Amino acid sequence: MPLDFTMPTQFRGILSTITPLDVLDILIVAVILYRVYVMLKDTRAITLGKGILVLLGVTVVANYLNLHVISWLLQKAVTLLFVALPIVFQPELRRALEHLGQGKFFRPGTLLDDEEAQSTIREIRSAVKILSANKIGALLVIERDMGLNDISATGIQIDGLITSDFLMNVFIPNTPLHDGAAVIRGKRLIAAGCLLPLTENRSLSTELGTRHRAAIGLSEQCDALIVVVSEETGTISIAENGHLHRHLDGEKLTHILTPAFAYSSRSSILDTIRSWREKS
Predict the structure, then answer these.
(1) Distances (CA, A) of 254 to 182, 198, 222
(2) How many domains in the chain?
(3) Which of 77, 101, 125 represents a domain boundary (last residue)?
(4) Fewer beta carbons within 10 angstroms: which end of the chain, N or C?
């Protein structure tokens, strides 16, 4: 018996009523929902959101099966839940409104406009150069697309605006935060004293200490950039994708960091490294 691949009449009728404005409407809603998900995915709010979806799903099933008592209880619980949502999601709602007001809602969350990016990079570069000159060890983790909440949770939560003085104070020797890593998200330092996984690469030079091995280890597991200042030599290095780029000066550091911060300058870090290598 031959298969009938003809489109049902009802489905054809629905398609015939769809206009270009309907398609645009759907796309706009999809983009907004995606941006909301991206904003929430690295926070505890995403777990609460999943719990709400499960509760709504159970409510639908209970209504379908005519479980009247359970349905009544779930409906009351959902009503109370929606009243409590503005309180539960207060930080996320505030951040969303701030991003919307600043025109950043549709940008990747950790990227900044050119002025903010250059200011943040200048502060980091200034701190790193001073730390290097004084041979003070430092480990700066710069978050990119992959969230680092699991790493920041191992340290002390800070959430402070990045300045060179602030960064230098974090790495003052013989203080609780000195030996850990500082995690940077956008223009804010979100945590310090964090623990990083060590690389298992046995082919590395024996002159590389724990900081460098920790930087390489994290870069093997995510897309973060990790800036390392050697405590022994003051050498500035950056770990990315399991590779360590050493002996960087201020200019090279700026070239490598810019695509990680600036919205208009996003490009491959490796391409940037190749460009300044060709110039040298």
Answers:
(1) 18, 26, 21
(2) 2
(3) 101
(4) N
